[in-house]
Model the fold of this input.
Amino acid sequence: MITIEDVSKIYGTMVAVDHVSMSLEPNSITVIVGTSGSGKSTLLRMINRLIPPTSGRILINGLDTASLPATELRRRIGYAIQGHGLFPHYTVADNIATVPNLLGWPKARIAGRVEELLTLFHLPPETFAHKYPHQLSGGQQQRVGVARALAAEPELLLMDEPFGALDPVIRAKAQDDLLDIQRRFGTSIVLVTHDMDEAFHLGHRIAVMKQGKLVDFGSPTTILTEPKDPFTSQLTGTLDRSLKLMSLKQLADFAVPGDTIGAETLPATLSLRDALAEFVWRGLKVASVVDSDGRQLGQITLDALLAQGRRP
Done:
């Protein structure tokens, strides 16, 4: 989907992004992490040319982004930022319709898309379509911001710290909403964050930036278990690596046949990390794993759970 070839950004004597190369897969979420000043937001903004690269090139579906007019490029790419950036004098519906209107969509198609997205983000159109941003909560504003970024059905969505200003409960819900959206539409997403838990929860691939350089790039499991740079280990932490590793796996993949008569049940969609917490809280040695319809898929034991937290 995206190929970044030897891209740098230099401001005077300061190197913000230093010869970064990587390929991002279609229909996936790539998360860029790093400390403040590592170049992650600059790299993101070079993808839609809000910041022009000093050198190197960026291709989307094989097309060099420098070959397109900037406005045309940006209308093909969704962009969501921390603080949502909604137009205060526009209604919710008008905010979401911004890019489709610029693209000249028919009014009926725009209205249908607005209704679809509001429903998808659990904002009933009859209640929210005609409200203004100041009438919404912070979490609702953020959802409208993401809906606006998705309105023109972009193949690519860029997100810069989109959930950073939200409280933990709303943030977790917003993250899960994003995962549902990505699965439904198959949108390719590039997201910048400094929160490693968010990166592991959302990312199919994680890119680690340090002082403008790309020092690590791989799946969450690889980043945890086979870090290529000591800085990666610092970011992921050393005390809770086992729990982070377990958070990437679901019970459904580890249930085995066994006698679970009288055993307490746990949902198959539960992560191994959350399952371990339930085992400790309830004092369990074994539990029955069930699907959303309550059908038994097998069992999981405490020893089997603990084994999945060990270093591969």
